[in-house]
Amino acid sequence: MLLINPHTSFFFRAEAQVTSDAGLNAYGAATWGQFFIYQGFNAHAGWMHTTSGVDTTDEFVETIGGGENHRAVCVHDGSRCVEPIGRVIVVRIRQADGSSRERSFATFTTRHGPVVGAVSPGRWLSAALMNTPVTALEQSFLRTKANSRADFLAVASRRANSTNNTLFADDAGEISLLVPQFVPVRSAKFDYTQPVDGSDPASVWHGLHALTDLPQVNDPASGFVYNSNDAPWRAAGMGDRRRPRRRGTGQRLGLYGDTEQRRRTPRRARRRHGAADDRLR
């Protein structure tokens, strides 16, 4: 059984059945513009997403000043400078009288990602984040054809989901909670909860974690998995010895902080299972 509380307005997501001559037959909800079922089920499996607290974006402070235009991004000892990629974006803006005019914006991208601001003269701030839109669309569509957890994980191996936890269930009795698969490998030398020194070559992302590195909850002894936009540590109740641990996996990967939403989860679990159940405290 897969229970979902979409907690959105009636018009936020459209309910639809999507079929094809190639065997696709999925039913559920799609957000505006999506050509795939975002959350729903097919004949053998169902899936639902919640918002994740996994940290999948970082900010890098770039030291600039080298090169012909004095905009090159340099490493900390100045031995190597690379010109950022520049691009002019033109936007048409509607005026009060109904006419429109063009406005141009100069944009720059470093090896870390797009420049989003400046922290001081000669120091830009760039943002690193997932930028694989085609692969993300592939993952979102192909999972609607998954008939088992193995199928679903094979699609997830594309690692193009950076925002969603996923609750999964199939007609073989398999249930799972998965965290986003796009999780960068970061150096332990830096605190990535703050902007880090982009001029230090060691601060760059070192690829992505394998799915086997990430916490999962599969077929727990409690018989259920649960998530409400929170971390996975209590997803199957505190009595499950196989549950992911905050100390160890969570700390090593820097996955989750603490929010009021996550602090409310134990209270919800106690109400569901009874206040006397100290496994959930």
Largest sheet: 7 strands, antiparallel
Helix content: 10-25%
Average pLDDT confidence is 84
Order of helices and strands: EEEEEEEEEEEHHEEEEHH
CATH superfamily of the domain at 1-52 and 132-179: Aminohydrolase, N-terminal nucleophile (Ntn) domain
Mind telling me the CATH class of the domain at 1-52 and 132-179?
Alpha Beta
Please tell me how large the radius of gyration is.
Answer: 22 Å
Q: What is the number of helical segments per DSSP (H or I, 4+ residues)?
A: 4
Give the strand order of the largest sheet, numbering strands 1, 2, ... along the chain: 1-2-3-4-12-13-15
CATH architecture of the domain at 1-52 and 132-179: 4-Layer Sandwich
Shape: globular
Question: DSSP strand (E) fraction?
Answer: 25-35%
Under CATH, the topology of the domain at 1-52 and 132-179 can be stated as Glutamine Phosphoribosylpyrophosphate, subunit 1, domain 1
Low-confidence stretches: 273-281
Oligomeric state of the chains in view: single chain
Number of extended strands: 15
Q: Could you describe the 3D structure shown?
A:
This protein has helices at residues 133-142, 149-156, 246-253, 260-273; strands spanning 13-19, 25-31, 39-41, 45-51, 58-66, 72-74, 81-82, 85-94, 100-109, 115-120, 123-128, 164-170, 175-178, 196-197, 216-218. It has 281 residues and is an alpha+beta fold. The protein has a domain at 1-52 and 132-179: 4-Layer Sandwich (Glutamine Phosphoribosylpyrophosphate, subunit 1, domain 1), CATH 3.60.20.10. The strands form three sheets. The chain has a seven-stranded antiparallel β-sheet, with no helix packed on it. Strands 5, 6, 7, 10, 11 and 14 form a six-stranded mixed β-sheet that branches. Strands 8-9 form a two-stranded antiparallel sheet. It has four helices and 15 strands. It is globular.
